[in-house]
Every structure is written in C-alpha cells, then in structure tokens.
Specification:
Strand order of the largest sheet: 3-2-1-4-5
Low-confidence stretches: 1-5, 7-14
Number of helices: 13
Strand content: 15-25%
Oligomer: single chain
CATH class of the largest domain: Alpha Beta
CATH topology of the largest domain: Rossmann fold
Largest sheet: 5 strands, parallel
CATH architecture of the largest domain: 3-Layer(aba) Sandwich
Structural class: alpha/beta
Order of helices and strands: HEHEHEHEHEHHEEHEHEHEHEHH
Mean pLDDT: 87
C-alpha cells in the first residue's frame, strides 16, 4: 500500500531505502538534493546545473546530469527514479517496464502543497525523519513571514508570451503572503493565463514583476521591452526576479516571499 501511495510500481520495488536514485525533473532534483543521504542521489537533470533555473545549483554541480531519457537513466543502474507528472509518459512507462520503480511528483499549486511534496520525497528516499524536520522548519519560517499590511500594492506577474499567474497558483500564493494584491484577479485569471499587453497597461498595477529574460532566445520576450510598458506612470518596474525560487514547491519559495516582502516595503508599503 505504501509503495502504491508513493506512485511506485514495478517488480523491482523494494522495502528498503533506495541506494541509487536518479532524478529527471528539476523540482525532484531540488527536493532530493536537500533530503538524500550522502551518496544516495547519483544523477540529476540537466536543468539542475542551470543557475537561472535551479535553486540548488551549488549542490547539483557535485553530481552528473542526465538528459531525462529512459535509456540514459537505465544505464545509470538506479533502484529508483524520480520524475514529474509532466515527464514524458513514454519515458516513465519504459523505465517501469525495465523494472525501475518511478515516483511521480505533481507540481505544487500552492504553498500548502510544499510540505506534502517534502513528505513524499522523504518517503520515497526512506528519509522520513529528515523530511519531518524540514517540514517543521518550513512551517515555522512561513509563519514568521505572515503579516497583514494595511497597504497592499497591486502587482502583476509578467512572463514570456504575456503569461501571468493568478491567486490560485504557487506564484499567486507568494505574492499574497508577501503583502500584494494580484492584478491578474482583476483580469479574471485565477491560475495561469495570458495577460495581453494592452490589458496590463489598462490595469496600471502599482508594480510589474517580470520573469527572467533570456536575451536572444525568443521573440516571445519582446513584450518585456515594449515602450508602452515602460511608459506607464505610477507603476514600478521591478525588473527580473529570480525565477528559480518561484518554480518548485520546495522551501526555496521562502526566499521568493522574503524578496517580495522587502520589495513591498521599499516601494512604500507598510511593514
């Protein structure tokens, strides 16, 4: 029953803690890097070495990377693979057919999901006690960051291709706890959706928070440099914030909350 709850299937599932674990997903990389016993994690995804994406890049650099393909993972001789629910189903299926147990982790949709993801990783690695300590520390730090400012500036998150995040998302939770109103709510966006530049300008939020720019990568980032965006009066252009602290349901989201809370105070919001 426990193995089923973990999402592990396959004849090779073991009762003991796995000894050779391979992660093929950025978010499972980061949780495993923080919870795995020394030598237990043997490979992480390539994104784990990208400082723009990985909040645990310093730890990850000590491990080899993999391209998240089934054949490559199989050759690493793991007794457990960690993947996301959006990992290529063919890869997951092939690994399981080869007798390698796979644990699937869903993306965190809110701050309340973070302890669940930590606990799931603790069970998968046989590191429940370490996970319990991490959860307790996370909850204590999160509680310490909660306040109820009288002045809640309206903020808009603005990513490539004009995407934004509403209140019912991990990023929306970060904004809310940091003391901001989410302008996406006024646009009728509750989770993830597109916010056309024209609508963003009409909303005239107090602050616009951009996703990280990757110069020369895509025309989808042209919206970041549109003159109309920078001509807004009364709107603070916060520039790029570190996406890596916002992406995954790990304790690193606390850094995102702290950064946003500090930003609110700097632009004139109450503490």
């Amino acid at each position: 029953m426990l193995l089923a709850a973990l999402g592990i299937t396959g004849a090779a599932a073991q009762a003991d803690a796995p000894q050779r674990v391979v992660s093929v997903n950025l978010c499972t990389d980061q949780l495993a890097l923080d919870l795995a016993a020394p030598g237990q994690l043997v490979s992480v995804s390539r994104l784990a070495h990208d400082p723009k994406s990985s909040a645990r890049v310093e730890k990850a650099l000590a491990l080899p990377t993999n391209g998240s393909g089934a054949e490559e993972v199989f050759l690493l001789n793991p007794d457990l693979a960690l993947a996301g629910t959006f990992t290529d189903p063919a890869t997951v299926s092939m690994l399981r057919d080869l007798g390698i147990p796979v644990v699937l982790f869903a993306p965190a949709q809110s701050l309340s999901d973070v302890p669940d993801r930590i606990a799931q990783m603790g069970r998968a690695l046989g590191r429940e006690a370490e996970a319990d300590r991490m959860i307790a520390a996370f909850k204590a730090d999160l509680s310490a960051l909660q306040d109820a400012p009288a002045d809640r500036p309206r903020a808009a998150l603005y990513y490539v291709n004009s995407y934004t995040s509403g209140d019912k998302s991990l990023a929306g939770d970060i904004l809310n706890l940091a003391g901001f109103e989410n302008a996406a709510t006024q646009a009728g966006i509750s989770t993830i959706g597109t916010l056309p530049l024209e609508q963003l300008i009409l909303l005239a939020p107090d602050i616009i928070i951009q996703g990280r720019d990757y110069p020369g990568q895509s025309r989808s980032e042209d919206n970041f440099n549109h003159p109309a965006l920078h001509a807004l009066t009364g709107t603070v252009m916060a520039g790029e914030l570190t996406d890596r602290d916002w992406i995954c349901g790990t304790p690193q989201v606390l850094n995102a909350i702290r950064a946003m809370r500090d930003l609110r105070i700097r632009i004139g919001g109450t503490q």
